[in-house]
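Q: I have 246 residues here and want to know how they pack in 3D. Can you give me a structure?
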Amino acid sequence: MIAPRIGILIQARSNSTRLPGKIYLGLPENGDRAQIEHVYRRMLRVPGVAIVSLIVPENDLRLIQWCRIHRVEHFVGSELDVRERYRAATRHYGLDVVVRATGDNPCVDPVLAGEAVAAMRSGEYDLFSFCNLPLGCAVEVFQSAALMSELVAARPEHREHVSLHIKHNADIFRVSHPTHALGSNRLAPGTPRVTVDTAEDLSVVRALFSRLGPDFGVREILSLYEREPELFSTNALVEQRVFAKR
């Protein structure tokens, strides 16, 4: 049996709404590496992956130039239709399985990403992601056939949220969002937020990189959360944007 070709496609853009230019900010505060560089470098460590690429909007000249200067693999696609950007990149790289990461998540854990890929393949799911980990540590994995599927009529929100057409149709697609053992009993009373969407988020994540170095994972985050929960209080009230409803 031929092994599937697996690729990690990192969704990124320069002009985020709440914190423009965040992907270029250093981590820690005086660090040499930009946020997006940490995401890319971490994803290169996921085993069994054929390609890691930034998926860039066609009008984002700043990010395109950054990728060229830093010799980072990238694919340029539709600005407004993010799902089509992913579809075009999937075709371009000839992928059977897509791992979706984002430029918002410099704490993404490559070990967890590898576990998610293995779990999805063993369960033959169309989409797989862990559901009970610190926000910003995990990825989602889906079959390219599900990404390309036209079984579901496209709605406007599907263009913005890459896999929403899969998640909203569990009667058609095989979707799994299990809990992970690391997060099961360690997240009360809340879940630490380690994604970067606001200035408050950036403050927390910079503190993590300062305390833990560049290569920490979810285990180290949870251990620090148990010892010093106040470190994560700065962004505890930040409202997370959610996927559009049915």
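Q: Anything worth noting?
A: DSSP finds nine helices and seven strands in the chain. The beta strands are 6-11, 51-57, 74-77, 97-102, 127-128, 140-143, 175-176.
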